[in-house]
Amino acid sequence: MLPVSIEPHPHRTITWTGVLETPAATARCATLLAPLLRAGDVIALQGDLGAGKTAFARALIQALHAGEEVPSPTFNLVLTYEPADPGAPVIWHFDLYRLERPEDAYELGIEEAFDDAISLIEWPDRLGRLLPDHHLEIRLQMGRRETSRRIEIRVPDGDLARFRSALEAMGLEPVHAEAGDT
Predict the structure, then answer these.
(1) Which of 60, 86, 140, 158 is the most exposed place for a label (fewest CB within 10 A)?
(2) Pairing mode, if any, of strands 12-20 and 149-156?
(3) Cα separation of 14 and 103, whole Å?
(4) What is the residue extent of each domain of the chain?
């Protein structure tokens, strides 16, 4: 019998979950993911108001741009962060809470961000079908305690090898795979 090679499924995601007990644990999670990101990566940050999306984004940006002040882009809709290293990608941080129509994201330069930058997107559901199928989804929810958060990270199957060590270092556990739309 010939050996069987199992290729990553292009439309499947692997879900990892866990609990982040403190804001510092949330920041550590972002810091572990940050060095693994590259141009073209899209991170969809999901969660209710106050769940920690901006805190997560702030920690991730600061991990890549040490000392950078990171305000919330709520009123600007998008802020960009240029790297000190010319070979590193720019980070585009979108807060789409106030976006009226998905098409309005084109005016923010979202296509350029998807192609050439790391895109951090709060309220990604506002993009509708414009959100790329291939993205890392991070969902934050209020935990049992005031400072704790439940985290769920959906990783595209083809990217699991790149992110596995960080997910394990965060103490997250894989729970299941889901087939996406084909």
Answers:
(1) 86
(2) antiparallel
(3) 29
(4) 20-152+165-176
The fold of 20-152+165-176 is: Rossmann fold (3.40.50)
**Residue 117, number of CB atoms within 10 A of its CB:** 23
Q: What's the token pair of residue 67? A: 């000392």
Measured at the alpha carbon of residue 178, what is the angle toward residues 33 and 141, in degrees to the nearest 5?
55
Measured distance between the N- and C-terminal CA atoms of the chain, rounded to whole angstroms? 31
% helix / strand / coil in the chain, to the nearest 5?
Answer: 35, 25, 40
Summarised one tens digit per residue, pLDDT across range 20-76 is 888 899 999 999 999 999 999 999 999 988 888 888 999 999 888 866 677 776 678
- The model's pTM is 0.85
Q: Are 173 and 81 in contact (CB under 8 A)?
A: no
Using CA atoms, how far residue 87 sits from 13, 63, 67, 82, in Å, is 29, 16, 19, 11
CA distance 41 to 33: 12
